Amino acid sequence: MDHAKLERNGIAFALAILGVASIGGIIEIAPLFTIENTIEEAPGMRPYTPLELAGHNIYVREGCYACHSQMVRTLRSDVDRYGHFSLAAESMYDHPHQWGSKRTGPDLARVGQKYSDDWHVAHLAAPRAVVQGSVMPGYPFLSETRLDTRYFSEALTAQVRVGVPYTEEQIANAAKHAAWQADPEAEYEDDLIDAYGDKVQIRDFDGNPNMVSEMDALVAYLQVLGTLVDFDALNPEEIAR
Amino acid sequence: MTPEKDPISGRETTGHEWNGIKELNTPIPKAFRLWLWISIAVAALYWVFYPSFPYGADYLHGALGYSSREAVQVAVAEGAATRAEAFDIFETKDVNELAEMPELQAQFEGEIAVLYRDNCAACHGRDAKGQKGFPDLTDAHWLWSGSPEEIEYTLQVGINSAHEDTRIAEMPAIGRDEWLEQAEISDVIDYVLSLSGQEHDAEAAARGIDLFAENCASCHNGEGVGGYENGAPDLTDSAWLYGGTRADLRETLQHGRAGVMPAWSDRLSAAEIRKLTLYLLWQGQGDGNS
């Protein structure tokens, strides 16, 4: 064929390679320019509280995503088992997002408030003690590890850099807000509701009122998954696209 | 460097030569090339018929106007309609009527077991026998009564749950919040051990009687038999949600208990909750007396 011509014209050949290789990039990047109309209006959606964000980071650190997805697909079997299919808006504040197509354990997109805190704590500490035949590893150390809140303001600032709308006030009070959310007396409930809305769950998640542990953070995160969006207030036409 | 014909195969060479070695310019087999062109054609057709690229403030909808979200909503509605027909009786009759129809068990238990395992088995176990902190649903000991409509109500609103009408039951942290001295708590524990006929110190138990009457009886009843109106457990039987040994009781009195049963009315349909209620009645002695 025309091998000879191509091979003897280096610059044209390089340009041709560049053109072909950028097709994939363009297909992946182009939708980001129209992201405004990709993400639905979802009343109720809000950024994670600092405690929930810490839980998200622990979830990522421990590699939970290797076995659990957080995406209810648009398949009847998924919707029947897990509930409403996931909306783009529901992971708009997830950095990184936790979608996936491989499930060794169940999908967790709507696990929030499905089980009690006590169950989560017992299950994370020793999965087979509560679920017969589970292959999940245990994470008993989470209950014994004090949550390191020193860099929470920086963690929120990092989220702001990638587009999460935390306010100056939320950033400045991040460590305090985390401690308040795990306070068994819920002494600062009003302040937290002012900062994060009335769906914020305030209680001692890990059953140990004397310490804010990594278990508090992870359970607070799991208990909020899929519970924020008010599905009755959605615009069905927009959602059906 | 000009291509030349190879005398043996009859094909052209590439025209290159490396130390006397030349390479045949053999094209890939026709079938492979055909497959490549078919794939490209299918991709092009897919773009025509199905949603593909973003386009301004919208996207290309495709000739068929297909939407996976619309499709799944139709499929789910179809499934719900099929189930409503197959499980018709759970849509139309209330739990009390259903509880009077033991013949339903043979017909529906297998199907409902799937629903139970998806939603309830994590805490209460596949056999519904529970575990520490999560009640056994097969025995005759019920915290909120084993009548069909009370079980149904607990499934709907939960206990200490996020539901606005949740049932609420909390054992206070009598030790931690310093309601009683540690010595007094020991006396109460001996009295509670005596209620269930366990080994106890009779003298301490006698000292515990008044303490129990003052601090515990308002929920657990004067005789310690508990009550369905506030979900307080019967302390005179052998069923213990958090263990009935001296050490277990000390932990309960020291730190309190407030077990959570999630609310299911937002997650399951009314008929599904009715099915699960019936399933539980079939697993045990539903009314708590038989």
UniProtKB/TrEMBL annotation, chain A:
InterPro entries in the record: Cyt_c-like_dom, Cyt_c-like_dom_sf, Cyt_c_oxidase_monohaem-su/FixO
Q: Which domain of life is it from?
A: Bacteria
For this UniProt entry, the molecular function terms from Gene Ontology, in alphabetical order, are: electron transfer activity; heme binding; metal ion binding
Ranges annotated as spanning the membrane: 12-33
Can you say what this protein is called? Answer: Cytochrome C oxidase, mono-heme subunit/FixO
- The source organism is Pelagimonas phthalicica
Which Pfam families would you find in this protein's record?
FixO
SUPFAM superfamilies the record matches: Cytochrome c (SSF46626)
Keywords on record: Heme, Iron, Membrane, Metal-binding, Transmembrane, Transmembrane helix
Specify whether Iron is a keyword of the entry: yes
Instruction: Provide the Cytochrome c domain boundaries.
Output: 50-226
From TrEMBL, chain B:
Its annotated pathway? Energy metabolism; oxidative phosphorylation
Q: What is its subcellular localisation?
A: Cell inner membrane
Q: Per its UniProt record, what PROSITE patterns does this chain match?
A: CYTC
Coiled-coil ranges per UniProt: none
**Superkingdom of this protein's organism:** Bacteria
**Where does the Cytochrome c domain lie?**
105-196, 203-284
Q: How is the cofactor bound?
A: Binds 2 heme C groups per subunit.
Which sequence ranges are marked TM in the entry? 32-50
Q: Where does heme c 1 bind?
A: C120, C123, H124, M261
Names of the cofactor(s): heme c
InterPro entries for the chain: CcoP_N, CcoP_N_sf, Cyt_c-like_dom, Cyt_c-like_dom_sf, Cyt_C_IC, Cyt_c_oxidase_cbb3_su3, Cytochrome_c_Oxidase_Subunit
The entry marks the following residues as binding heme c 2, namely M171, C216, C219, H220
* Record's subunit section: Component of the cbb3-type cytochrome c oxidase.
For this protein, the record's PANTHER family field holds: CBB3-TYPE CYTOCHROME C OXIDASE SUBUNIT FIXP (PTHR33751:SF1)
What's the protein called, per UniProt?
Cbb3-type cytochrome c oxidase subunit
Q: Which organism is it from?
A: Pelagimonas phthalicica
Gene it is expressed from: fixP
